[in-house]
Structures are given as C-alpha cells and as structure tokens.
C-alpha cells in the first residue's frame, strides 16, 4: 500500500516539476524576449492558443489522468469482504496520550505497541476515549482518525516482518508530540507465539507491602491481568517486554521503569499520572523491578 | 427616470471647488479622527492594523522555528508551543490575510469604479473597530499565557470545556466571532458598492477586472463565514452553557464541528487568493502596457473558483472516516478547481507574451508569486488525491503546501500591489535597490524554509509537534527550514525598512506614474477624502488609457455631480448591468456611532469571556439601542439629506426612490443570515443521520400547535404589512403608520406565542443534542421576530415624523425584507422540527 | 433592471453554478443518508441501486445544464451588436457549460466505487 502511494508520489512529483519548470520558463521567456507587434488576428490566435491550450486543455487532461490512476490505489484500504479466512481484527483506542491495543479474537490487551502478522491483511478498528487522535504508521499506509463515538476501519498489510514507528497525526493536546506507537510485524508463526505468551497468564503480585500499594495507588488506573482492573491508563501486563515507556518517551532498558515512576512529570509534562514523590523509594524500586519482570 | 447630465459642464475654479468639497468631506483631526468613516482612511487603517498583526504572527512563527530547529529542544514548553502555533495560524488567517485584502479592496474599489466612497461608510467604520477590538482581545490572551491552544481549527472535543478548561478557547471563539462581524460587514458593503455605485457607463463587461475578483470574494465571505460564526456560537454555548452539540455522550458529534469549520475554511483559502489574483490581473496589464488577455475567460474563471471552492471542504477531512465514494466526489471537485486557476495563469502568460513588459519592483514580486503559487497549486492537486492525502495529511508536507499557496498566492501579490500603489498612499515613488534586496531575501528564505519541508513531511513528521527525537531523518531538513525562516524574516524587515524610508526619501510621484489604466490613478496623490471632484462617465475598460486627460478634467469639475453647496456627500447609484445612473446616493458623514456601537459589542465580548452574564445582557441591549439610534438619522431624516433638491436633469436622491443601496445591503445581509441558518439546518439533519448516540424523545417535547399558531400569526403580520406597502409603492400612504403599528403588534403576538412555546416546553437542552438544536432554532426565530417588531414600530414612528411617506417610501421596503426572511425561516423550522421527524423515525 | 426572464438579466450569470451546488448537496447528502438508512451490501461493489440512482440524477442535471448552455449561447449570438447583453449571455452560457462538465467529472467515481464503504 505505502509502496503504491510512493509510486504515485514520484510520478506526480516528476510531472509537477516539469509543469513548474515549463510554466516558469515560459513566463520568464515572455518577459525577456524582444517585443513584437501583432496584428489583431495574430493576437487572437495567441489568445486562443494560450488560454484554451494552456489554461483549459492541459490542466483538464492532467486531472483526468490523475483521477483515473489515483482512485484505484485507495481501494486496497477499503474493508471489503474477503473470500476464505477472515483478516485478523485489532481494536485500537486513542487516549491522551497513549494507545490501547486489543486483540478481540484472543482477548490479549496491550498498550503503546502493535504487533501484527506480516504478509496478510489486518483489519483495524479505531476509536478514541477522549479527544480526536489519528492512527498512522507511515511505512504501512495512510492514516485514519480516531474519533470518539465513531469506529473507523482500515485494512493494513505489512509485507515483510519488521519494526515500524507510528505516531498520532491529529493534534490532541499538550503531549501530542509524545504519542508514539511501536509497531512490529512478525512472521505468522512468531505472531501466534507472541499472542499465545500473553494468553491465560498467571501473574504473581509484587511482595508486600508494595503489592497492596500497587493495587491501591496504581491499580485504580492501570490494569494488570488478575491483579488490578483500572481502565484510565495503559494495561501493564506485559510492560517489561515493551520497547519504550510513556508512549515513546523513554527506551525501556534496565532501570528505565524506575526512572519513569520517579520523573514522569518531568519526562512528559502534562501526563495524567500523578506524582509519586510521597511513595517510599524502596517500594517504588520493588514495584519497578516487578514491572520489569512482566515480560512474557 | 431622466438621463443624468454627464456631459462636460463649464469649469469652475478648481481651487475653490476643492475647498468646498473639503468642507463637506474633509477628515477631522485629533480625537475626532475616530469619527472618520471615509473609505480611504478606513482602508488604510485596516491595512496598517493588518500589518501589525502580520508582524505579531511572524514573530510567533520565528519562535516555532526556533523550537523546531534542533531535535529534543526544550526552549519552549509544550503548552506554550501549542499556544504559539494556534495563534500563528489564527492571527495570520483572521487578523492579517482577510482584513488586509478587505482593507485594500475598501481602499481601492470606490476609486477604481469611479465612486466617492463605499456605499455604507459608517458600516466600514464599525467593521474596522470590530476588527481592531476583536484582534486586541484575542492577542491580549497571549500576555496572560491563556491563549487558545487547541489549534487554529479548534477541533472539538479538544477545544471543549472538558479538555481545555479555562478561557483559552473562549478567547478564540468570542474574539474571532467579533472579528468576523467586520469581515461580513465589509463583504456586504463591497458587494453592494460594486453592483450599485459604479461610474456612469461602467457596464458589467467594462468593470475593472479587480472589481470582479472583489465582487466574488465579497460574496464568498458573505456565504462562507456564517457557517463558522454558527459553529463558534454553538461551541461557545456548549462550553459556557453545556448545550451538547458536539458531545458524543449526549447525542452530539465532534465531526459536525469539522464540517462547519471547513465549510468556511476551504472557501477561506480562495477568499484570500482571489483578491491577490485580482492584484496580479490588475498589475500585469499595466506593466505590459496592454489590456489583459481573455477578460471574459478570466471572469468565468473567477466565478468558477468562487462556486466550486464551496464543494471542496471535505478534502480537509479525508481521514475522518467518510464513505470513500463521497470522498471521491470531493477529490474530483478539488482537482477541478485547478482548471480556472490554470486559465488565469495562462491569461497572464499571454498578456506578457503579447505585451511590452517593463521592469519595476512590483514585477519582481509577480514573478516570485507565479513560481511559488504554481508550485503550491501543483501540490494541492496531489493532495486532492485521496490515497496520497491519507499518507501526508497532517504532516509537514501539508504545512509546506499551505504556505506555498498562501504566501505565494497572497503575500507575494500583496507586496507587488503594495509597491504598485505606494505612490497612492504616500505620493512618493518606491526605491529600486532596497526593494530588490527585500524581494530576494524573502524569496530565497521562503523557498529554503518550505521547499524542504515537503520532504520533512514525506519522511513522516506530523504537524503541530513541539519536538521530535533525533535519528528519524528530520534533523537536517528542520534546521534548513529554521535557517531559511530567519532569512525570510530579514527580508521582511528589509521591505519594511524600504517602505518606511520611502515615506521620507522617495521621489515625489508624477501623475499616474505607471501609466495605469484604471480610475484610481485619476485622483490626486495621495487622494482626497472624496476621490473625485466630478464623476466621469466611462466608455471602456481602460478609462485612463482612453482619456489620459481625465485627472485634470475631473479635478476641474468638468464631469457630473460636481455641485457641493447642498452639503451632501453624493455618489452615483447606477444600474448593476449597464452602469446607467438611477439615483443619487447620499452618503452619511463622520459619526461617533460606529465607535460607540463597537465598544459596546466589545463589552459584550469581554463580559462573556469573563462570564459576567448580567453585564453582557446590559451591554447587548445598549449596543442594540446604539445601533437603532444610529439608524434613526438615515433616509429622509433632515440630518441625512437636508433637502431633496437635485440639479435639473439629475435623478432623485435614493431615499426618495423605491430602490436604494439599503435594499441591496439588506438582501445581501439576509443572504449571510440565510447561510447561517442553513448551516444550522445542516447541523440538525447531520446529527439526525450521523450522530452515534442521537436520541429522539418519545413524545413531542414542545407544543407544535403553539409553534403553528405563532407561524400563522407571523404570516398574517407579514401579509398585512405587504398590503400596506404595495399601496405605498403605488404612492398611497394613507394610514401607513396605523398599518405599521398593527404589523408590529401582530408580530409581537407571534413572539409571545413563540416564547410560550419555548418556555412551556419540556426541552432539556443541556442533556441532549436534539433538544439543544431545537432550542437554538426556536430562539433564532424569536430574536428575528422581536427585531422585526422593533423595526416596524420604528418605521411607524418615522411616518409620524414625516421621514417615511409616499415621497420617501424607501425604508419600510428595506424592513419588509427582514419580515419576509423571518417568515421563511419560521416555516422552514416548522417543517424541520415538526413535520420531518415522524417521516424519519422520530417522535 | 431587465425582466427576470430575459436571458440578458445579469442575475442569470451564476444560475448554472447554483444548479451545480444544489446537485452537489443532493449528491453528497443523498449518498450519506442512503448509506445510513439502507446501505447496499458491500459485495455488490458499484453495481447497486444507489449508484444507479445517483447516476440517473446526475444525467438529468447534465441534460438540463446543457439545454441552458444552448439557450444562453443562442441568446449571446442574437446580441452580437450589443456588447453588454452579449457579455451577460456569453458568461451565463459559459457558467452553465462549466457546471455541466463539473457534474460529469465529479460523478465519474460513481462508476467505479462501492457507495457506502
């Protein structure tokens, strides 16, 4: 899909560059060439030549061609019915400023990362929990807005396994810039394993007193499978396996979770997560270490 | 009606004539300068104010580019950055581009069409003050760090109270609505002036091409701005009073805002571009010393652009999830609009080809315009292609495209025009050297900034982000853009310096310095407040090329309306097609009313902002009283037209006819009003079909019978008045006052019934979008009915004073249109609210 | 002012575009409403009653606009010696012709796309 658009782009770009150069050159030539006197009949011929030929025929032919070649290119992103096996469905919900990703067929929930099988079409249903966001993975294709109350659909296909970057494209408030989605396309078997690892997991809570602290303080907004059910903030069940924290703010290497827990308001000003300054450092460390371990 | 005497009259002493005219038309100094209504002064004020806002907007852009110059910078905090880009867009669009173009048109149009002033001079003054105060209110928000920050497009729900608490969005909604009063009033005035006050003999096919551009632009403003005004009112009602038009949970839909916004927003681009293209079409023939090639084709192109551009709005919304076939319609229409522009580009090329081009600084800006604008137009056609748009929508590619179109299509021609008309503003010629430096710095800086920005966007950089990570390939192009933007800023500073210096050091301009063809160069330089001592008859499209002696003969009073001892400000009222004089329009003079009225409107705006509603109510009433008081000294009032005598052979004063400019002004105003109402109606049907949680109450929440009774009573009032006015048209004013009183009384009954319907209803406008829209529609009719009553009652009073009679039947005919409009609206509302729902699954 | 029905009344200049606007609103509005109320199945691709209806409506409007173009063109030919009248009729004919072409061009996608996806 993205490749088709790229081809369209290069054709249009070449053609436009040609038109621009020719028109500018004609214009400058017309200004510089020695003046000639024209009889009214000659002048009339020139009028016709420029206005009908240049002004009407040229642009009309161009846009007709463009429409004929351009419209079919968009058909692939339509969610048309397909024969045989139905495409994988994924539901993505935009939040200020993070992505909620659900796989309804398997019940897997994650956040700020989108994993999908390569080489087959995937149907995404997108919506928003607050303001309008826009789902966009430049390498995979066009964008689609996430509008509260609406459920827009788009069909994407990653041809090869690989990692991509997605970013919210519709201005959505203070941290619009920090709403990045990590996208990874897997070979179908790897994808099946990825899903399987997240299904039916038993997660042990962190040791007390951090355990109850987590449920009381974090669990109100965050959910972790079997431990807490918060809905306002990203699901943390596989946090340790995610490549970034805070929707692309911080690389999730060793110690990053603790840093996020301590400094998130400085790293991502305006984020909805309240300050943790009143939590004892030891408890924070315990929680951070536990979260790092949530990596199926 | 007798033909006027436009032949040459015996010359009087030009000096004496000038003094006599100055006594009537002259501009006062000191504080009283605030009362000036003259179009030359108002136009200049518009332009100077616009230039100041341009510099403010430019400064904001510099801050944006500073922040984005390098990755991961934190010079500017995210929320501040969001304020910056929101205000940059808002200031440039609403406070610079449109008012600047309107200001230039206000300045030029009467001079070009051979009139002494615009047709509603006091309205021009009101428009200017609304613009000034609205702009100041809006910009003042930046001083307290509470500027709007939801983007210049104010998409809900981000701009709604839940997600942007505080006054930020209110500043935008109220300030911009205030400014739009100015835009629409200037639009109405320009339309009527162009259609009705052209020089004798200036038929439609002999109008200067610039007047065609402005006519279409003004019509587009009249029809295009109301949807946004409505949207702003609805969103402000949602924010301040909780009426949920755009809230999904309560049956609204945020996408409705986008429709209303872009219904305005796309025509807006052409509202800015058309007058600029008009400058190009005016200047090129002058610098080629030959008429514009393909006048008729260009006119056709302007009209096509004006209409088709209303069918493009959805191309800003290709990603919101509208059915693809519908997108394809808009895609095709968007490509189509390239054709009329192509016609103009080639008409200009042909003019150059066949002409004898001479080089001056304005020409340089015209060449710059062509290159940049054609580039922007070509990327525009690309964006019209839906799959490509999905890819680059909301990226820096669009930022680049839009700046190519707007800076290329508006700023460059504006500068060309500015240099061209400088002798008009100052009486001095522009310099050559500094002007060229300025041009090249701007041209190079602009292309450096924005050409590479296409690439930045294709690399995936979204718009409106305050920073970006390194390593995405965005670092270098952003740095180049920032460097370029500073070069461009230096260029603009150079141009500014050049213009300021020229006022001091420029060579005094000779008469008609560029040997131009249009009448604005027949005034003295700089022009007097009345433009022309005598108004010449026009025989061709190029009056000054046809008769180079015009400036002298005009000043010598050898043409028509050269008499001033009656103390009236006069200009011709002519036939829209042929330009044959039909009446003498007497124009109102300087006045405090526009300033006072706009001050009260400003108080309304501020008190709504700080949520002191009682004050807002008081100030609204005060503003209405001031406006009505202002209207009192009109028509046949002794202060407006001391006596009705005219020169033998001249047609009568417009206030003594049945068809004056006010009639046309009211018609065009109602067109704007109708556009607003249609947008509301669109909202009703839109929500009904599309809104995800739309809820229709089980039973009718208001009494349809009361609404029906109210509509019937209004019909009766209208019919009664119409009968009386038909008699008046035939010259019979027997019992006119009584009929008008009765009309007002019947109208009052209609208002009372409507009020009963509204108050007795079970409408819950805060809990459902359905009820909110119904409430707004009923209140809309209520306000119209109430105003109609007041106007007719005032007319009845005026009959008593003798201002309205069979001899001066003009005013009630103007008021009658308002009644007719109110009547249509109420019946349409009745159909939409009462008859439509059952056919569409409603209660 | 001339009589309203005279082809030389300048009020007719924008006539073609006003018809075009109404057609455009009907096209977009009709499509949107039809898709909400009775969307044809996606499998039918472009071969649906809705596409046929939109196409038929467009055709009717195009015929009307073509007839108007013809009428105004003839009027402009009759007024060869009267430049003001000729200008009005010529421009009105041009506007109608452009409106007709615009209808055809904008309606092209109906031939190739499913209506409600």
UniProtKB/TrEMBL annotation, chain A:
Membrane topology: Multi-pass membrane protein
Cellular location(s): Membrane
Alphabetical UniProt keywords: Copper, Electron transport, Heme, Iron, Membrane, Metal-binding, Respiratory chain, Transmembrane, Transmembrane helix, Transport
Highest taxon of the lineage: Bacteria
Transmembrane segments: 6-28, 49-71
Pfam (any one): Cytochrom_C
Main location (coarse class): membrane
Catalytic activity: 4 Fe(II)-[cytochrome c] + O2 + 8 H(+)(in) = 4 Fe(III)-[cytochrome c] + 2 H2O + 4 H(+)(out)
Cytochrome oxidase subunit II copper A binding domain location: 85-197
Family under the similarity heading: Belongs to the cytochrome c oxidase subunit 2 family.
Name of this protein: Cytochrome aa3 subunit 2
Organism field: Pseudomonas cuatrocienegasensis
Source taxonomy: Bacteria, Pseudomonadati, Pseudomonadota, Gammaproteobacteria, Pseudomonadales
UniProtKB/TrEMBL annotation, chain B:
Keywords: Cell membrane, Copper, Electron transport, Heme, Iron, Membrane, Metal-binding, Respiratory chain, Translocase, Transmembrane, Transmembrane helix, Transport
Listed transmembrane segments: 42-64, 84-108, 128-147, 171-192, 212-235, 269-288, 295-316, 328-351, 363-386, 398-422, 434-459, 479-501, 592-609, 615-632, 663-687, 702-720, 740-761, 773-797, 818-836
Localization annotation: Cell membrane
Domain Heme-copper oxidase subunit III family profile intervals: 581-839
SUPFAM superfamilies for the chain: Cytochrome c oxidase subunit I-like, Cytochrome c oxidase subunit III-like
Coiled-coil region(s): none
Protein name in the entry: cytochrome-c oxidase
Organism: Pseudomonas cuatrocienegasensis
UniProtKB/TrEMBL annotation, chain C:
Annotated protein name in UniProt: Fumarate reductase subunit C
Keywords: Membrane, Transmembrane, Transmembrane helix
Superkingdom as given in the UniProt entry: Bacteria
Transmembrane segments: 12-31, 51-75, 87-111
UniProt cross-references to PROSITE patterns, sorted A to Z: PROKAR_LIPOPROTEIN
